[in-house]
Amino acid sequence: MAERRRAKNKSKIKNQKLKIALLQYPIEWANPQANIGLLDERLRAIAGQADMAVVPEMFSTGFCTDRPGLAEEWGTGPTCQALQLMADAYNIAIVGSMMATDKGKLYNRGFIFRPHDLPQYYDKHHLYASGGEAEFFMPGNERRIFEYRGVKIRLAVCYDLRFPVWLRQDKHNLYDILIVVACWPTVRIRYWDVLLPARAAENHCYGIGVNMVGTDGLKLDYNGHSVAYDTWLNDIAGFEDYEATTRIVDLSIEKLRHFREVLPQWQEADEYQLENKRTDA
Hints:
Layout: H1 2-14, E1 17-24, H2 32-45, E2 52-54, E3 72-73, H3 78-90, E4 93-102, E5 105-113, E6 120-123, H4 133-136, E7 145-148, E8 151-157, E9 177-182, H5 189-202, E10 206-211, E11 213-215, E12 221-223, E13 227-229, E14 245-252, H6 253-262
Parallel strand pairs: 1-2, 2-4, 3-4, 8-9, 9-10
Antiparallel strand pairs: 1-14, 4-5, 5-6, 7-8, 10-13, 11-12
Helix pairs in contact: 2-3
C-alpha cells in the first residue's frame, strides 16, 4: 500500500505543470476603477487557458508614489474584492502588486489572489527612493515563498530585482519560479534585461518578469520587455517592444527538478544569514 502511494505521489510530481499568462499592457494613471476593468477584460479573454496571470507593479494606479490617498485597506478595499471575484470567476490565480494600507501603514504590496482561497501577500522590501517611494511607503521585512498547485513561487517587486542576496535561494526550501512585477522605464531597461536572467540563473529557477508599456502620468516611457526564462535562459514568452498583449507559457516543474538533479549547484551554495536592519516600527 505504501509503495503504491509513493508511486502515485511521484506520478503527480512527474506531470506537474503550470501555465502562466504574462499580461503586458498600459496602466491608466491613478484610475483604479478603469484598471480593474482593463484587467477583467484581459482575464476574460484567456479564461480556461492559464492557471495563473501576472500583471505589472501597482496595476491599479500606476507608480503613483506621491499619492497615498489612492491606497486601499488590504483585504476589504474594492480592489482586493474585485481581484478575489475575478480569481473565482475565471478560476485563475492573479499575481501583481498594489498600493495597500494595513494597520495604518502604507505598502507596495505584492499579492497572489487564488480562486476560492485566502489571498497571500509580500511587501516590497527595497523601496525606490529616487522615485519618492521611500518617503511614503514602509518596507516589508519578510522573504516569503508561496505555494500554488504544488509549485513554490517567490515574488519580488521591481527594485527588489537589483539585490541578489534578498532573492537568494535557501537551499533547504527551494522555490521553483521567481516572479518579478515591475514599472521599469525604458531608459533603464537594459538593467532589467540583464538582472532578471542573472537572478534566474543563480537561483536555478524559472524567471518571470512582467512590466507595463506606454507612458505614465509623469511622462515616463515604458517599452515592456516582459519575459519568461526557461532553465536554459531561453525567453519563451516572445514579447515585442511596446506590445500590449498577453503571452501564456507552459512551465514543467518536472524538467526544472531534473535540471537541478543534473546540475545540483544549489547544494553547493554558501551558507549565509541575512541581517535585516530595516524596521516597520
